[in-house]
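Problem 12. The chain below contains 396 residues. Write out its predicted structure in token notation.
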Amino acid sequence: MSLPLEGISILTVSQFGAGPYSTMVLAELGAEVIKIEDPSVGGDVSRSVPPYTIEHDSLYFQSFNRNKKSLTLNLKSPEGKTIFHNLVKTSDAVFNNLRGDQVHKLGLDYNSLKEVNPKVVCCSLVGFGTSGARASEPGYDYLMQAYAGYMSMTGDPFGPPAACGVSVIDHAAGFAAALGLVAALYSAARTGQGRDIEVSLLDTAFSMLTYLAIWNLNKGFAPVRRSGSAHQTLVPVQTFKTSDGYLVIFCAKEKFWQNLCEALGISEMANDEMFCNFGQRNKNRDLTVSKLQTIFAARSTQEWLESLRGKVPCAPVRNLEEALSDPWLLERKMIIETEHPVFNKVKQVASPIRVSETSFKHRRAPQLGEDTEGILKARLGLTDSEIGVLKRKGVV
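Solution.
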């Protein structure tokens, strides 16, 4: 059985993390993703992100660009724009994650392309939108975590605000853009009419504030950083120091609190009026947590896991190497391998989207311009001599 997006062709002008992640998700659902890279600047800037780099490539780049094709093309040249438009004629979507003010300038929006292909879907994943006073500002994950208040709620209460260790806004916006693009493709298939889809990194960051936003907007709730990365209102939901590490406890239901108290040998605490429900435990947070801290410090993380699993939601706090050694990854086939001419076998984490009754062989991310000649010949019928002229002029 074919993959869901087989037969869909997407041209993408994107670099770094959010856009390439989004289009990689689409590629692994079967879409043909043609990555357009500017030859005058060495292509996607992430090809040179350290620490593991070679000429025009890096492991960072490999992690975001599996299963794509690379076409070098200078979109600012007249010949480059003509080639781009000819490719748009036989493509289903155009994707970009440029600065917001560049989308219209480079003609990557639907209004610029509807005469070329009225059915084409144009998706822009930008920092602050494609219009307005902030459209020209560059947008990055760290900035969004600062703008949207994430950093103010993250980290030790006695230290500076902190960012999440992973680019969560980039990845979430990537999924949002992929969903928006697929929805628009569905609409275009029914109506024959394309459209613009826009996803902003900052919009995405704000949208994920969900319950914290509704509490603040309606009741003035002011979140604070708490020790142990504790939840704002649910107690106990946080990390606890054990004799050899840290353990996360997540009592999101009253039954879990009851089970925890029984497992810890403090059943009387479960029914004590000061700790008997969420409201009381939050009111008496310091006393609740201090009692638990003393208990958890007495045994190892593994001992607590053996005692609590199946009764109370819990997890060890692992480092990256420990996390990537989890047998779960092999059981779920979440580690894939691709062959690379320099890095040899490259292990990577797979997409979380599973499609039944299909087989899919992963390909490494392409070398800069690796597919240029093949695409220009197959899609546009250009000859070797014509491509040679374009190369000499710096168009491809």
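Discussion. Residues 9-207+331-392 form a domain with the Rossmann fold fold (CATH 3.40.50.10540). Students who got a different answer should revisit the alignment rule from Section 12.3.
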